[in-house]
Amino acid sequence: MPADSNLIVAGEAIKESLFQSLPERSKHEEFIRRAVDLLVERVVFGRSQRSAKVVEWAAPDEIKSVIDLKPREGPVSHDELLAIMADVARYSVNTGHPYFVNQLFSTVDPYGLIGQWLTDALNPSVYTYEVAPVFTLMEEEVLREMRAIVGWKDGDGDGIFCPGGSISNGYAISCARHHFYPDVKSKGVYAVPKLVLFTSELAHYSTKKMACFMGIGSDNCIMIKTDELGKMDVGDLEIKISEAINSGSTPFMVTATAGTTVFGAFDPLIPISGLCKKYNLWLHVDAAWGGGALMSKKHRHLLKGIELADSVTWNPHKLLAAPQQCSTFLVRHKNVLKEGHSSNAKYLFQKDKFYDTSYDTGDKHIQCGRRADVLKFWFMWKAKGSDGFEKHIDKLFDNAKYFLDHIKQRAGFKLVLENPECTNIMFWYVPNCLRGCENDPNYRERLHKVAPKIKERMIKEGSMMVTYQPQGNLVNFFRIVFQNSALDHKDMVYFANEFERLGSDIIV
């Protein structure tokens, strides 16, 4: 057989064995290195430049025509896979871009990214010490330090990393219910009275959703009024607690918010805690967004009283800019997670192992398999130190204040809140056609149409990404959120200029 025929046969043999789930140098090294180069050059660095687009907009049919999204019976070549990677990156939103300020997450932290890559390369699942020895210990240390930062003595208590803040808030409901009614674990909702919980009308929707999911019912998640700043009205909270008791219901918890999703408002935790003590209620603080401010001596006052909480949600992937996803549930009570959720599966949590099985922490979760979300955050913390996180937070607030002060001086910008508490800045951009028309009967209706038109222009040009929404009786307004500490004051001026460029000539 000719030499070139031998090469063809060898190549076909390699191709035929590519289904095997094990990296081998002869089969995969070149592909992996080319793929990593593509990620580093075209995704990490190429897409983080201010000159890059935040998004390359394409309609669904266009994306379907460019990327073959359907699974196929046979394999494709490595070259084809690399081309697919490039197309996926091209048409995905560039969340690492400095001008992606659309949601409560952004940027691609270099140390967090490496931690995430290391996590994926190790492919761990954190439930027993024997399969995740480093990550089991790492979680305990990081969670203890976070509890200490919250203000609990010596960092006592317990906690877990969760797949998002919604699940963290669900754990709070589960722990609170089990704390007061432990029979619910075995007998279910039939063993408890009609339970009700309370949260503000501007709180994250997950509290109501999780109340529904856990059989309490969305109608029994009672919404509390907020003041003009978006903070929970403590007087209305007590009225609603009394009404619930008088109607025969049993209040058991309050979920306060430290950094609401839209307004960035911080509920008054000390008086809320006082009511919880008076009526014997569990106090949970959803600090998914605002929790990062605890890292700053200058700004942690926003969460004054959080140390009085029974439990806390804190998402490092939000204000601290850890990679998605990185969410924690922290609880003051040491054993409630284990007592409320353990099932003692003997094929996984054997008690006669050769090591201390108290390190097998997985039985306190409702999950079994669970990512090591701790590593990326721990790696960032090692790289930056607590001092670095503090500087990061302080710069975010400085940028937000600069942007706020800047647009106060510019025509066409009208603030929703004159002095927002967090780094959420909310405003209407009023185009030329509406200036001076504030008293017209259809002014609000016309203003409501402005934000969607500006959003369409910015997305199709890819110049920035900023979200908008209505809120209560407020028509559509923009909400720009700052959590990327690589931004500076010049970027704040860019945002204002861009709104003006995109919106000044709009006709509604």
UniProtKB/TrEMBL annotation:
Pfam family, one: Pyridoxal_deC
InterPro entries for this protein: PyrdxlP-dep_de-COase, PyrdxlP-dep_Trfase, PyrdxlP-dep_Trfase_major
Source organism, top-level taxon: Eukaryota
UniProt cofactor(s): pyridoxal 5'-phosphate
GO MF annotations in UniProt: carboxy-lyase activity; pyridoxal phosphate binding
Matches recorded under CDD domains: DOPA_deC_like
Residues recorded as bearing N6-(pyridoxal phosphate)lysine in the entry: 318
GO cellular component entries: cytoplasm
Keywords for the protein's UniProt record, in alphabetical order: Decarboxylase, Lyase, Pyridoxal phosphate
UniProt-listed GO biological process terms: carboxylic acid metabolic process
TM annotation in the entry: none
Record-stated family: Belongs to the group II decarboxylase family.
Subunit structure: Homodimer.
Protein name in UniProt: Cysteine sulfinic acid decarboxylase
